[in-house]
């Protein structure tokens, strides 16, 4: 279960979001030592421990994608993305241009962002989807591990919406911005 360290609903007028710069200074100071958090919309979000099927889907996707993009792109597993001045989420997977391997992905550099969700579905389909679209990421998948469906977002708009949202349960997905890559959903959901 994902829990918020700050209230997710109506925030007071005097609310001041935490910036990425402040967030990273706190990380450097060891403030979050032993706690997995991410910054989304200026709020600290605590990430809960992973369990199956979430963990298995991340492992399987990493193996599928890394094999196909080897030498062309990198697959970052739970690495931070600098989405905007007040967001540095850590999606389950992201595909980045190869020179960024091991580094922090900058705004708009990820070619595909993937979140696997069990208890974080509302956050992943809400605030994160808006921020990824506004940042210009060409494609965003939310994989509902419970219902075994991929909610595929493509064609981002600057206002934080997506021109196309599909719900896919079977067949093969080919990412729009990553050539020669396919994900067979029947194989992915075979657990």
Automatic annotation (TrEMBL):
InterPro entries: Nuclease_put_TT1808, Restrct_endonuc-II-like, Uma2. Pfam families: Uma2. Residues 21-172 form the Putative restriction endonuclease domain. This is Putative restriction endonuclease domain-containing protein. It comes from Euzebya pacifica. The lineage of its organism: Bacteria, Bacillati, Actinomycetota, Nitriliruptoria, Euzebyales.
């Amino acid at each position: 279960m994902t829990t918020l360290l700050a209230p997710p609903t109506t925030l007071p007028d005097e609310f001041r979001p935490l910036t990425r710069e402040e967030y990273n200074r706190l990380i450097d100071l060891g403030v979050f030592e032993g706690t997995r958090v991410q910054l989304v919309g200026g709020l600290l979000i605590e990430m809960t421990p992973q369990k199956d099927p979430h963990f298995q889907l991340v492992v399987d996707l990493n193996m599928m994608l890394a094999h196909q993009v080897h030498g062309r792109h990198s697959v970052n597993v739970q690495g931070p993305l600098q989405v905007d001045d007040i967001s540095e989420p850590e999606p389950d997977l992201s595909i980045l241009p190869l020179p960024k391997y091991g580094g922090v992905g900058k705004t708009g550099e990820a070619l595909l962002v993937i979140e696997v969700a069990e208890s974080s579905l509302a956050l992943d389909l809400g605030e994160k989807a808006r921020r990824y679209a506004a940042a210009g990421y060409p494609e965003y998948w939310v994989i509902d591990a419970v219902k075994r469906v991929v909610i595929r977002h493509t064609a981002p708009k600057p206002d934080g919406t997506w021109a196309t949202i599909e719900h896919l349960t079977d067949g093969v997905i080919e990412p729009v911005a990553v050539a020669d890559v396919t994900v067979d959903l029947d194989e992915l959901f075979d657990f």
